[in-house]
Amino acid sequence: MKILVVVLLLAVTACTATQQGEPKREAWLTGKLTFRKVESVAPTSKPSSGYPAPQNEAGDPAVKTARATRQSPDATVREQALGTLDCGAPDPLTGNDDAAAPLVTCDAGEFKYDLGPVFLDSDRVGKAKASPSEYGTGHVVTVEFDPEGARTWSDFTTANVGNQVAILVNGRVLSAPSIQSPITGGAMQIAGKFTADEADQLARQLVGR
């Protein structure tokens, strides 16, 4: 079984208030995990300060304006949006992107992306488990897709060897690894500088708990 290992570098983010004795919950981790094909990548001169939590309602005019350019079906419009997008500015599309449309967005580092529509999301995750990293640093989340998700993942990775796939939460790219070979086992591993609480929160979020 081949497992795609996704290295996810976490930035400092705000967290929500918690009751004493409960693990803290990061607000940005409350969104749905989605997968999109990477169409193009560009460097950014103003890197993001981290992974933001949603700040805008879906009906805000700013969301509608951002969708008209950054989620346009016209590749030329999205190319222009990619060139002018400021990754350091507040993003009205955080948590408000249209899954059926393309998306121009950022990661928490130095890149911005033009992505295809969502082809797979956490609704197709059957199991998710947090555990200490075998490399001794941080924690990882191992994800197993349900049968439909496994078929979709296998078909996509088979058809896109050599291309990148973007993994996002709330419309912000967590990682965009290159697909080295078809991944037919229906599993992947998200690894990075997770605390135990962050990994546990992500695993629970992926299976709706």
TrEMBL record:
Residues 118-206 form the SecDF P1 head subdomain domain. Residues 40-77 are annotated as: Disordered. Residues 1-17 form the signal peptide. Keywords: Signal. It holds the Pfam family SecDF_P1_head. The keyword Signal applies. InterPro entries: SecDF_P1_head (IPR054384). The keyword Signal applies. This is Preprotein translocase subunit SecD.
